[in-house]
Design goal:
Layout (H helix, E strand, L loop, with lengths): L6 E8 L12 H14 L5 E7 L9 H11 L3 E6 L2 H4 L3 H5 L17 E9 L2 E10 L5 H14 L15 E8 L3 E2 L11 E6 L2 E5 L9 H12 L8 E5 L1 E4 L1
Parallel strand pairs: 1-2, 1-3
Antiparallel strand pairs: 4-5, 4-6, 6-11, 7-10, 8-9, 8-10
């Protein structure tokens, strides 16, 4: 199939539980939103794949499987969904369907690096999830996994929807290995900080808006860890490379 002949797959799903949410999640409303998005972004040859009345817990759904067969056959230029929950409730498995971009620099294939992905919408935090050390096979997969988690698994926020994507600013902090430090060796602009006491651990990235001193950086990290300032705790510092 030539590139110009490839389809834009528009996927809709509605479970019986979703029906209780009313018109906002209806198949009719999803179709309208997806077609408008495709039209506005010049996505051609749109084809709908629909699972109506089917739970997102299982990925064994006729509409989804039909679409994935087209993807695997190389017949799909783009897949559009209202939000990731339409594709599936298992967000980590949903992230497996994200293809690693071609032409990445060599360092993206290296392993062992932690990474934090931060999402902001109109200057306000919309999600932030990361790993202190690498848990994926390489840095590219680390960033992809954490980007998905920042969008849909940050417990402080509702999952990001497709309609929000154009308003998001995304930054990625790649973490170097932490090293032990004392307060005199900290610098809230240059270094991030990790505080630990037993199983409790809190991390704060460097050079954050509204964090103007080392004392503020430590205080926030302690709060995140649930450690009181008068408790004994250890400090580590780390450097990052920030990509915005």
């Amino acid at each position: 199939m030539q590139k110009s002949d490839k389809i834009t797959a528009l996927y809709c799903r509605l479970s019986h539980e979703d029906e209780l949410a009313g018109e906002s999640l209806s198949i009719q409303n999803q179709r309208k939103i997806l077609q408008e998005y495709a039209d506005n972004n010049h996505l051609l040859n749109t084809v709908f794949f629909i699972d109506d009345g089917v739970s997102g817990v299982s990925f064994e759904r006729k509409g989804l499987q039909d679409m994935l067969r087209e993807v695997e056959a190389g017949n799909v230029a783009a897949v559009v969904v209202k939000d990731l929950s339409r594709l599936g409730r298992d967000y980590l498995k949903t992230g497996e369907y994200m293809k690693r971009p071609d032409g990445l620099p060599d360092e993206m294939s290296e392993s062992g690096y932690g990474a934090f992905v931060s999402l902001k919408k109109r200057g306000q935090l919309r999600g932030c999830i990361g790993t202190i050390t690498g848990v994926q096979d390489n840095l590219a997969d680390e960033i992809i996994a954490n980007a998905v988690s920042a969008g849909v698994r940050d417990p402080r926020f509702q999952p990001v929807e497709a309609s929000e994507l154009e308003d998001l600013d995304i930054s990625v902090d790649v973490l170097f290995a932490p090293e032990p430090a004392d307060i005199s060796e900290l610098d809230h602009i240059k270094y991030g900080v990790i505080v630990s006491s037993g199983y409790r651990r809190g991390l704060l990235l460097p050079n954050l808006d509204g964090v103007d001193t080392v004392e503020e950086q430590l205080s926030i990290a302690l709060q995140k860890a649930g450690i009181r300032p008068n408790e004994r705790y250890s400090i580590e510092r780390f450097e990052v490379v920030r990509h915005v």
